[in-house]
Amino acid sequence: MGTYFGAIADDFTGATDLAGLLARSGVHVSLRIGTPETPPVETAAFEVIALKSRTAPVAEAVAETTKALGWLQAAGAQRFFWKYCSTFDSTAEGNIGPVAEALMAQIGTDQTIYCPAFPENGRSIFMGNLFVGQQPLSESPLKDHPLTPMRDSNLMRLLAPQVTGRVDLVDRLTVAVGADAIREALAGLRGESLSHVIVDAVANEDLFTIAEACAGMPLLTGGSAIAMPLPLLYLRSGVLSGDNKSYQAPDTDPRAIVLSGSCSAMTNAQVAHYKAQGRAAYQLDPLILAKEGPGAAMSWLAGQDLAKSPLIYATAKPESVKAAQDILGVDQAGEMIEQTLAACAIEARNLGARRFIVAGGETSGAVTKALGADQLDVGPEIAPGVPWCFCHSGGHQIAITLKSGNFGQEDFFTEAQAKLTA
Ligand SMILES: Nc1ncnc2c1ncn2[C@@H]1O[C@H](COP(=O)(O)OP(=O)(O)O)[C@@H](O)[C@H]1O
Ligand SMILES: O=C(O)[C@@H](O)C(=O)COP(=O)(O)O
């Protein structure tokens, strides 16, 4: 059968996050890195397109997303999903709202919901306010995000300036009553203008109730978790046939490389934990890289035993990141590190690495591009929102995982390996 569900994500780690949660139901999920240039043939029932549009200018994000939607429509998709960050990362201009309105116009619908909640990773919404763990979004580390500092926790206030239509809320009290109450509330909010409805969710049970109420809507928007129940709901209602077989992950050679360009608090802890286990690790210093290039990193890599999964990282604490950025410039420092980690990925592949553990959204973009990975099949989840994916690179079967900065436990890098060898 062709595609039934088509999703578009605004960054790469977010796309694997969504794909991993859909694949929990055992369905085959195909992930495309960028919109394919060729028309769809032999597509999966669940297709996710990963874009890099989170902080792009609004017009560019809208153009890229509607192009992706066109491809999914051509693939036969009937239900659509717009995936953004579980911390609603966006600027005052967008891109969450403008993209949603462009998708609504192209799909021909006048109402959609917004549910970035991801309770397993500590993101919950109550009375329209987003919490990260126990902190309101605007008091969490996201208030200092370099590109999209989140200084308000109220999703209605954040979304309203980004859209032309009305913004409303279906709150937790209604969600607690059940799916019929949500449907009724949504019907009551429909009007002459486009209807954008934030929906509260504090626990997985809420997500199941909301998904049940909204599974028939042509377009849903949110983080990954609200999409998690959809495959089973589609199968149960019969709109999707049961012959949609689950994906059998192929065996991969265990030689691995860990590449970390994320500087989040969690990735810093993961790098420290890995090093504390005595793993071989090489730190990229942006100031030395700027003077001497990647030669020393490449020579170090050539001397490593890939069976022991060495780590190359630029991950650093905010003070050193800032110091490097002050000297080199934010974009130049980031770009240089991304290109070095991408070059390390190719070199590691040439040396025999077949498993790639990558930390950081931008870093993941650079590495997947370098490896020529344009279509990934989604396999087992290592941590909530971080699955292993499989593809071919340079004529070899490889496994790759793209970890969002904030996700995974401290032992993520060893857990990732254990998940495949177990
Ligand atoms: N030591 C460093 N100094 C300056 N910039 C860095 C350093 N280490 C990594 N970076 C850059 O910071 C950015 C991290 O972003 P990203 O990979 O998306 O991680 P996250 O998912 O945590 O946001 C990348 O552009 C990366 O190249
Ligand atoms: O929804 C989420 O939190 C993630 O899927 C995500 O999008 C994270 O983005 P990065 O932190 O930039 O990797």
Commentary on this structure:
There is one protein chain. This protein is α/β, with parallel strands linked by helices and 422 residues long. It has 2 domains: 5-237, Putative sugar-binding, N-terminal domain (Rossmann fold, 3-Layer(aba) Sandwich); 256-421, Molybdenum Cofactor Biosythetic Enzyme, Chain A (3-Layer(aba) Sandwich). It contains 15 helices and 18 strands. It has helices at residues 12-23, 58-74, 96-107, 155-159, 172-177, 179-189, 204-214, 230-237, 265-276, 286-292, 295-302, 318-328, 330-350, 361-371, 412-421; strands at 5-9, 29-33, 46-50, 79-83, 111-115, 123-126, 129-132, 135-136, 166-170, 195-199, 219-222, 256-260, 281-283, 311-313, 355-359, 375-383, 386-393, 396-403. Strands 9-10-5-11-4-1-3-2-16-17-18-15-12-14-13 form a 15-stranded mixed β-sheet, sandwiched between helices. Strand 17 (386-393) and strand 18 form a beta hairpin. Helix 2 packs parallel to helix 3. The chain is globular, with a radius of gyration of 21 Å. The protein starts with a strand and ends with a helix. The chain binds adenosine-5'-diphosphate and the ligand O=C(O)[C@@H](O)C(=O)COP(=O)(O)O.
